Structures are given as structure tokens and as C-alpha cells.
Amino acid sequence: MIPREKQKMVNFTENVTEKCNINHNIHETLSPVVYIFVFILGLPANCLSLYYGYLQIKAKNELGIYLCNLTIADLLYIFSLPFWLQYALQHDNWTYDELLCKVCGIILYENIYISVGFLCCISIDRYLAVVHPFRFQRFRTMKAAAIVSIIIWAKEIMTCCFVFTHGEISMDAESHLVCFEHYPIKKWEHNVNYYRFSAGFLFPLFLLAFSYCGILRVVHKSPGTQKKKKIQIKRLVSSTVFIFLVCFGPYHILLVVRSLLENNCSFAEKIFNVYHISLLLTTFNCVADPVLYCFSSESTYQNFVKLRDSCLTCLGHLNTETKESYPLNTTETPNRTQHEQQPGLLQMPPDGAETKDCFTTNVDSL
């Protein structure tokens, strides 16, 4: 017997699925682990990344705008993870109303495609800075970055409004209300999936590959760049493309596979686990973004070494103050300045040199 509230919701959405016997065990085992891991690591990492992006904006660096927008998209998804966690632990049974399901689903897809959009912006900005440092100056301004950011957000919001006009809650064979899942997929989803694959994955992949290949060519021909620095740049570029492929590649490939082959419950049941593993891979993008585009720079690493030393110093002060019989008597090292002894969070030098972005406008500081 279906509860009245559930029946009312299904009738409202008019989106009852076929009674496919889907095994949701992967959501109860693997998904919670991934969600908790990404939440614990991603929240502080993106908060620090947001602060670092703010410092770049404060220094009039257009790349800070892209980094802040990228981080905001990641944080929105991270804040929605508790709802997805509860959904997974309840055997894929959505206990909230349909509006919240739609909001969480929109945030999920927004995170994927807004992240992809700003990753492309960052790669193109770095390409123009390194390969054409003087030719396209007008495209590398704060105003241009703000306009591009508004266009990306507006485009994705309009796309979601166009796509998510259908009821997003449906009922499975176990009378569970599933959110953003249809088995087999609906006919209207086929064209949407093809669009996501081409515009949301293939085209951005082409832009990333084009931009970073251009950067690598310039780095390779640069006689003034040290060999060690060239290796670091190559590793960073290859890591960026690799993580993009790992996080977004399997998911978009399976979107096409589902659109081409999923027309019955039998295929839906077979591909369910693989598809949801690919969807979980997109979640790791929230952790990879701040690591690749902020914390991988040498200047940021030095800032976090200072932050670590500062925290250890504070902990040492606290531990010593709690012992009444051992008053705090610290001596300063004569060779160290006061600025070096008490570094602050991402403390900036007086000349503002540290406010540059993770990839500066010349090859040697990429």
C-alpha cells in the first residue's frame, strides 16, 4: 500500500517510472563514504581557496574572479551533500519535498558544468597570458572576467530552467521516491544527454587541450626557464587534463551510452552501478579544483608553511600557558625578523608580490 503523501507527490509530478528492480546497494555503501570524504576535505579547502581568490581580486588580478566563481560552485554542491547523504543512507528514498529535490539536482548539475566552464576560462586566460601576452590584453581585465562569469552562470541557469521542467521525483519498484533518476531514461533526456556530452565535455576538453598544448610549446622553447621548472609546469598541465578526464569523462560517456542503449529495465539494471560510480567521480572535482588551481603554486605552498608554523606556535603557547608552574618564556631567534616569527594566514608582503594568481603572466612563474 503506497502512503497517501507519497502517492500525492507522484501524482503531482506525473512521473511514475517503470517498475525496474534496481539494486541500490552501491548508494548505501560507496556513496556515503565518498560524500563524507569530499565534505570533510572539500569544505576547508574551498574556503581557503575562496579567500585566496579574494586576495587575487583585491590585487586586481582577473584570474581571481574565475577562481572565486569556481570555488562558489564547488561550495554550493558541498553544502548539498548532507541531503544526498541522507538520501543514500535511506536506500534512495527522498523524504523531502520535490522542490528541494529539484534544487539539489540543479546544484549537482550546476557544479559539473559551471566548474567545467570556469576551468576553461582559467586555461584560456593562462594561454593568452603566456602565448599572447600583449595581443589580447583587453580580454584579460577584471571587467572582461566579470562579464564572462555572468554569462556562464546565466547560460547554465537558463539551461537548467529549460531542462528541469519535468517532475523530478519518481517511484521505483520498492515504492521509494527517487530523486533525479528515471529507469529507463525518458525520451526527452536523450537530446539533453547528447548536448551535455558535446557542449559540456567534448568542447571544453578541446579548449583545455588546445590551451595547454600552446603553453607547453612556449615553455619548451623558452631558454630562460629552468629544466626543473619546465618539469613542474608539464606535470601541472598533464595533471589538470588527467583529472578533468577522470572526473568528467566516464560520466559523460555513460550518458551517451544510456541514451543509445537504455530502452528497457534490463539494461538499466546492468548499468546502474557503473553509472553511479561515474557520477561519484564528478564529486571529487570539488577537492581537485583548489589543489590544482591554488594550492599547487609555490607561493601558496610557502604561505601554508607559514600558516602551519603559526598554528604550531599558537599551540605551543596554549600548552605552555596551561601549566602554571612553567610560565611562558620564549626567546626570539636573533637572525629572524618579527615578520618571520609570527606569520599570519596567507600573510602578504608589503609590496603585494604574493597577491599574484597561482599562474602568473610569465612562463617562469606558471
TrEMBL record:
Domain of life: Eukaryota
Segments traversing the membrane: 33-54, 66-85, 105-124, 144-165, 194-215, 236-254, 274-295
Record-linked Gene3D superfamilies: Rhodopsin 7-helix transmembrane proteins
Provenance organism: Ficedula albicollis
Keyword Glycoprotein: yes
Name of the protein in its database record: G protein-coupled receptor 68
Feature: compositional bias, Polar residues: 327-336
CC per GO annotation: plasma membrane
Organism taxonomic ancestry: Eukaryota, Metazoa, Chordata, Craniata, Vertebrata
Gene behind this protein: GPR68
Region annotation (Disordered) ranges: 325-354
